[in-house]
Write a structure and sequence with these properties.
It is built from 13 helices and no strands. With about 250 residues, it is mainly alpha-helical.
Length: about 250
């Protein structure tokens, strides 16, 4: 018999093992590790990667609402119909203010003069200065602004009355009308500021003359010193006060 070399037998066994065939008594032992591994079922866990464990959701931290925000949210809202009302309130306020009577100062010369006239002069000359019977009117053709072009002359006339005027040597009024009796003297019963206030009322309120301090100062000191010398300084003091704060 011909002896087959060992290296050829080994090569033949290896070829049969690679082709999956048996190889005599040594075939089971010659099974390759790959074949053995193929015969053994692999665990399912090894065939696929392990599934990732689920991550628990993280709850967002809720910040507490500030108390002033809660108060604003809970506050009642302005009704829609009230918006135009609020918008027009300033306009209504202006209209209302313009319809009010102008404020009056109870101590102003104009107010005092009106009160003095109503109490002492209106009975004869009428509430509006229209006169009555033989008593001349203080407005119109016989207006005091015509009979007494200078306020100082009217003050002297009211202070002296018709009797004192004639005693001072005057037979006519500065405007040219002859002096008639009946005008009482008011210097003894009216303070200088009240007497000047009633003259102011007759000239500005009744005769609509605009107050002009320069017109009142015209011949004022000379006239009052001539006709009422004892009270001239008191009348001058009133005029100085009106010069600082004009009557209104």
């Amino acid at each position: 018999m011909t002896e087959i070399p060992e290296h050829l037998l080994a090569r033949s066994k290896a070829r049969r093992a690679a082709m999956g065939g048996g190889g005599g008594d040594d075939a089971p032992a010659a099974a390759t590790p790959a074949a053995a591994d193929a015969a053994t079922p692999a665990p399912a866990a090894a065939a696929a990667p392990a599934a990732a464990a689920p991550v628990a959701p993280v709850e967002a931290k809720v910040e507490p609402t500030p108390p002033w925000v809660e108060a604003a949210q809970a506050r009642k809202k302005i009704p829609y119909w009230a918006v135009p009302v609020l918008f027009l309130l300033p306009l209504w306020a202006v209209v209302y203010a313009l319809t009010l009577d102008p404020p009056t100062n109870a101590d102003s010369p104009i107010t005092v003069g009106a009160e003095v006239y109503s109490t002492n002069c209106a009975t004869c000359h009428g509430p509006t200065g229209g006169g009555s019977g033989n008593i001349p009117a203080l407005i119109g053709d016989t207006a005091v602004t015509k009979e007494f072009p200078k306020p100082a002359e009217q003050i002297a006339w009211v202070a002296l009355g018709s009797a004192g005027w004639t005693q001072a040597g005057e037979t006519k009024l500065p405007g040219g009308r002859a002096v008639a009796g009946g005008m009482p003297a008011w210097a003894a019963s009216l303070e200088p500021e009240d007497l000047m206030a009633v003259v102011l009322h007759e000239r500005t309120t009744l005769d609509k003359e605009e107050f002009d301090i320069e017109a009142w100062e015209d011949g004022f000191e000379e006239t009052l010193t001539k006709y009422v010398p004892d009270e001239a300084d008191a009348y001058m003091a009133v005029l100085e006060e009106w010069k600082t704060t004009p009557p209104a």
